[in-house]
Amino acid sequence: MDAYFFIILAVGLVSTAICLIAGILRKAPNDATILSVAAVEVALVVYLVGSVVRVIAGEPIAGEAWEFWGYLATAMLLPPAAIYWAILERTRWSNFVLAAVGVTALVMAARMNQIWY
Amino acid sequence: MEEEHNVNDDQRPAVGKTPDGDHHGTPAGNSSEAPGNPDVPARNTRNTGPGRLLIAVYAVFALSATARAGYQILTKFSEAPLAYLLSAFAAVVYVVATVSLAKAGSTWFKVSVAAVLVELVGVLVVGALSVFDSVQFPHETVWSLFGRGYAFIPLLLPILGLAWLYRRRPVRATAAP
Predict the structure, then answer these.
(1) Is B15 within 8 Å of A88 when comparing Cβ atoms?
(2) pLDDT tens digits for A1-37?
(3) What is the reported pLDDT for B96?
């Protein structure tokens, strides 16, 4: 597990916690929950940029390269999709949808780490 | 709760592109359905409130199961054909469940019930087989070991799905589209 994983682990868990609490408190998606999910996207962009730099620098990916990039690309689609979905229906339930992004992203980041090393 | 759904139902056409855009044409065109009972359109959808979370989780599973089955079949199909065909079947079931839950109307409701029931049977049968016959089922489908590799969510999902479908079952008298 490298630093990129731990960044996504931290950001993902914080985002999931914020969204879960907001959902439990019956709040509609607000700046805090939407921005926390946006932060997950930023963490994934950091992972993307870092990985591109490492590949250009000549570091090999141990597993299937396309599988790694597939995971990363899919993970990066999740926050925008969840935010879009949450804005369409602004009820407490959308906060639970947003909460799912953080944990999903960190599971995918863990898998990406396994593929890389 | 019901009021909340209705408000959201009214907001949706303004927002535009939604999966059940076609559904909104029905109450408008068919005057016998909408005016008397504003609950009817809300009753015949599964994509509001908790349903949105359910659909989101189903969508994630549809995506990951499809990707996984595609990968297995393209790269190492001959190693365990039965398990990988089951993977592909599971992926199809998740895709059908996701789409049908997002759609309005009683036909899609029936499709949802069928998909979720198949999913429940699948996870129970494949889960049991993977425990007793680990040679034919080398623990590589979403449903193996009752979905242990996915935090048992595959086992929980169909149960929650059926509960949700039951709560949002179409009302008999007004449900015919």
Answers:
(1) yes
(2) 788 899 999 999 999 999 999 989 988 888 899 999 9
(3) 95
In this prediction, residue B29 carries a pLDDT of: 37
CA A25 to chain B, closest CA, distance in angstroms equals 15
Report the chain A residue with the minimal C-alpha distance to residue B51.
A93
Q: Contact, B48 vs B9, CB < 8 A?
A: yes
Judge whether A12 and A103 are in contact, CB under 8 Å.
yes
Question: B161 near B54, Cβ under 8 Å?
Answer: yes
The alpha carbon of A68 is separated from its chain's Cα centroid by a whole number of angstroms, namely: 15
Place of tokens 């909340």: B4
B54/chain A closest Cα distance in angstroms: 8
Q: Which helix (H) or strand (E) holds B64?
A: helix B50-76
Q: What integer is the mean pLDDT of B65-70?
A: 88
Q: What is the domain partition of chain B in residue ranges?
A: 2-174
Q: What is d(CA B69, CA B66) in angstroms, rounded to the nearest whole number?
A: 5
Q: Decide: B23 and B41 in contact? Cβ < 8 Å.
A: yes
Q: Which of A67, A78, A97 sits opposite B52 (nearest CB)?
A: A97
B31, amino acid identity: S
> What's the whole-model pTM score?
0.77
Best residue in A68, A77, A91, A104 for a mutation probing chain B (most B CBs within 10 Å): A91
